[in-house]
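ugh ok fine here u go
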Amino acid sequence: MPFPEFDPVLIHIGPLPLRWYALAYVAGILLGWWYAARLLRAERVWAPARPPITLPQLDDLVLWVTLGIILGGRLGFALFYQPSLLLQVFTGQSLGERLELLQLWTGGMAFHGGFLGVALAVWWFARKHRARLLSLADLLAPVVPIGLFFGRIANFVNGELWGRVTDVPWAIRFCNERILRTYGMCPAGDVPRHPSQLYEAGLEGLALFGLLGLAVWKLRLLTKPGYVTGLFLLGYGLSRALMETVREPDAHMPEALQGIVTMGMLLSLPMILAGLWLILRARSRPPVAA
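structure:
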């Protein structure tokens, strides 16, 4: 299948390009904000305890979470996938090279880095407001798949993070006139590949959202602090590790590890272990009291 002639820029507002990727972040944050507020209002899913924060406190938390996503995602990308961006801060020959790390519009965000940034923001917020840390994490965990879904759709529109070469009937050639004009070539080559971005949108986004929704609304697991967070960590870690088998492998991995594991698998392993630990911990304890 040919790759559609998507334009990563939705519209230009004067000299400012409004990109689909930016809109994906905005949509994920706004819808996540709405869903978290809905969870806070549904006191029955927390009973007999109360929600960990108030609605006005959620408004403040959203700002810190947004900063954690952006700063953590960018720094994580530089650290895990492109260390040269960090080196350029100190060794760049021009101001533009030194500041390339801050040029978010050029692309390059890592989920695992964003996750760590959000984790730090939530820890700081819980400490400042004396909120129950695990319950606060449980509030945010069901929200994350919303952002993951929109982010993966944006990856597909941008024609990036494509899958491995395959001969399945729905394979896509990530090459079109726009990509040729932009790069002078097709980075993915003119070969059929897995649309792994869409696989991840379905698995890490829709399926994980459904699983966590079942845990919250039907199984009432918010009454066991850490359980929903553990399910998210385990679910995302397993989903990402599985998807790494169809995503194009990381070219910068040490030669001895190429063909065995990918960076995404290595970064997902601690999430899987932490998720299992949180689930076992929550299962062994009685529901939180009021």
